[in-house]
Structures are given as C-alpha cells and as structure tokens.
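U., I forgot to send this yesterday:
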Amino acid sequence: MTEDKISAYYGEPALIDPIDTLGIVIKTARKRIGMTRRELAAKLNITPKHLMRIENGKQKPSYNLLFRLIRELSLPVNEIFFPDFVYDHQEIEYIISMLYKCGKKELHVVTATLFALLE
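Result:
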C-alpha cells in the first residue's frame, strides 16, 4: 500500500490491515518530525538499511524495536494498531504524545503558553 492510498483515507474510516501500514506510519512520523532515516537509525542503534526495510514493509520490527520507535517518534499507538480508524484530531494526539516526553519545567512553559494563547 502506498503513502498516497493512506493519505486518501485521512480523516475517514478505512479498512486497512495494520501489518500493511506499519512501515508507512513509521516513515510518515519520522518525516513529520524532520528526522532523517540515518538520524533515527542512530538513535535506535540499528542500521539505516534495517530502518529502510521496515519503512518499505520488507521487514517487521521486533517488539522491543517497535516500542522504541513509538517512543522516539511520539507515535500514538492507535495510529499503528488501529489504522482503520483514522482520527479527526491526529494533530492533537501527536501533541499529547509529545507532552509525555516533557519534564516539569517544559510542561510549565507549555501550560503558560496555552493560557496566554487562549486568553
């Protein structure tokens, strides 16, 4: 399945097998945060070729690697395990997943910023 086919389903219910879309979801998330394949592979301690094979659907990651990918890319797990239910609020879920990576100081800054924006 191509990225174009996934994009066509954005915002609509779709009947997609999670196994078929895992690589696309990972690749899209990596690009969304502006990370190169080489950078992500280095953070995960794998080769760029291994990551490329995962992104292209030629290989499936181990559970441990999938867990690290989810955390490193701040991926909402629903995006991986329930691709047939594409959320209308994916941006919000992405922001929420990034908040879990923040410490107290960063959360304080985010909270203050939100209050200022909403006044």
